[in-house]
Amino acid sequence: MRKRAIAAALMIIGASLIWTTAALAGPTQLTVRIEGKEKTLFEGPILTEGHQIQAASDTQTRRCDATNNNAHPEAMPTPTAAAVDAMELTGQGWDGNWFDGFDDYYLTRFGPDHEDLGAFQYWGVLANGAFTPVGGCQFGDRAGDEVLWAYDAFSGRKFLWLAAAGDTTVAPRTPLPSAYVEVGQPLSVLVESYEGGGSPAERAAGITVAPVRTDPVNGDQTVEVGDPAAVVTNGEGAAEVTFATTGWHRIKAQEEAGFIRSNRLDVCVEPEGGGGCGPLPADAQLRVPSYLEKTEGGGEDPQGGGETGGGKVPGGTDDPKAPAGDGPKSSAPPAATNAGPATPPSAAISLSRAAADPKGGTSTLSVTVPGAGHLALSGEKVLATSVDTAAPGTVALTIRPKAKQRLALHRHGKLRVGVKVSFTPTGGATASAWRSVLLKARK
Predict the structure, then answer these.
(1) pLDDT tens for residues 136-162?
(2) Do residues 94 and 195 share a domain?
(3) 389 in any annotated domain
(4) What's 347's DSSP letter?
(5) Which of 49, 175, 253, 259 has an alpha carbon within 20 to 30 A of 316's alpha carbon?
(6) Region class of 40: left (phi > 0), else alpha (psi between -120 and 50), else beta
(7) Is the dihedral of CA 370, 373, 375, 376 positive or negative?
(8) 419 forms bridges with which residues in the sheet?
């Protein structure tokens, strides 16, 4: 079993597999999630790139930039380097065994959760919902990818996926990370499951969706299944969650027998009539590991030690397999000139409360954008619209129901719809936000 787990994590599938990539200059934004034995150890967007890292039990630093084992011709972000950065941000460590034959680490521990050889429970890694065909230092990630490290990943358990109703994302791709609902009103959610092998996702019935408690020290997330707001999905994988207080709330689909817990959904519970919740929680916004901050401020070398703060990077040679003391000297990361907008994508757009127009059966949503780019609005029940922006400012988007929904709106006098607002800054990465909007019409 251990050999099979190592093979699943490190081995190239098929001798004819050829990797082709485009060079990626500068740090890249990824979504990183580390699902531990009983808690989520990390979840959120980070800025990262391939770089030198060192496991807690290793005696030297190792290259981890997708050029390992000649997997890619150019350095790229990798699942392992991204996870190392994530653990550094939480103040926790990691460990692994280096395999010269694969030019890669086999990960054995994140934070307190070490693999259990007796129970055949090992760490595994997925990218965008599929197990990577090569190890975490060989696989190359692209901007917007989701990296998921999961404990006991090879026991046949399925992975849970949670999204707000109205989110058009198709599992297992990363759903929109936030949703909006008014206090006392139910938020409809959908839970699906997938195997990580490329097969279609399925609706997950009988799964508990519950609030999440976040540790204020290290950010660990625990699903509070005993919370009064906890609900169980029906036969279609759907459920409705209602919150009694305003502000930001967090929910997850809890780990059940045969399943691995889901991604987190941050829910803005607005006062009656709307009004928003202010900025996203800090750990839901883009975070930057210390080595990138140091590089931008003074050009210090990145350090990727297995414990907090990392080990000192030895210098003198570019050989990644050199003995300790003569190991590779990490070069400073390239300048982030092509890394997208300076504004974190999670904060790149700001949505106001939608103003209903009962006479026209529409609503107007004001969107504040940071600069030039393309702004688009879409949704299952609304007509798509878009506009180009030339400078920072506020843009008014009109939300119009589709023909079928318009009939329902005039029949009942009101209709709640979900809309997705996306902003793509010129030369940068797309940022998206989701909003639940109530349309009203005069009967």
Answers:
(1) 999 999 988 999 999 999 999 999 999
(2) no
(3) yes
(4) G
(5) 49
(6) beta
(7) negative
(8) 435
Is the pLDDT confidence value at 303 over 90? Answer: no
If asked whether residues 170 and 268 sit together in one domain, one would say: yes
For position 26, what pLDDT does the model report? 65
**Shared-domain flag, residues 164 and 150:** no
Tell me which amino acid residue 333 is. Answer: P
Residue 382, token pair as written in the block: 């609304």
User: Are residues 438 and 428 in contact, defined by beta-carbon separation less than 8 angstroms?
Assistant: no
pLDDT above 50 (res 261): yes
Those residues whose C-beta lies under 8 Å from the C-beta of residue 267, and which sit 6 or more positions away, are 164, 178, 179, 180, 181, 187, 241, 243, 248, 249, 250, 251
Q: Quick check: 3 pLDDT over 60?
A: no
Residue at 263 is within a domain: yes
Q: Which residue has the tokens 């050029």?
A: 67
Q: How far apart are CA 169 and CA 45, in angstroms?
A: 17
In the chain, the number of structural domains is 3
In a domain, 399, yes or no: yes
> Which segments of 117-242 are extended strands (E)?
123-127, 130-131, 146-151, 158-164, 178-182, 186-194, 202-203, 208-214, 221-223, 231-232, 238-242
Token pair in block for residue 29: 């934004």
- Would the pLDDT of 285 be above 70? yes
Parallel, antiparallel, or unpaired: how do β-strands 104-110 and 202-203 relate?
unpaired
Contacting residues for 27 by C-beta, under 8 A, at least 6 apart: 47, 48, 49, 77, 288, 292, 333, 336, 339
| Judgement on whether residues 258 and 193 belong to the same structural domain of the protein | yes
Could you tell me if residue 245 is inside a domain? yes
Q: Which structural domain range is residue 162 located in?
A: 158-277
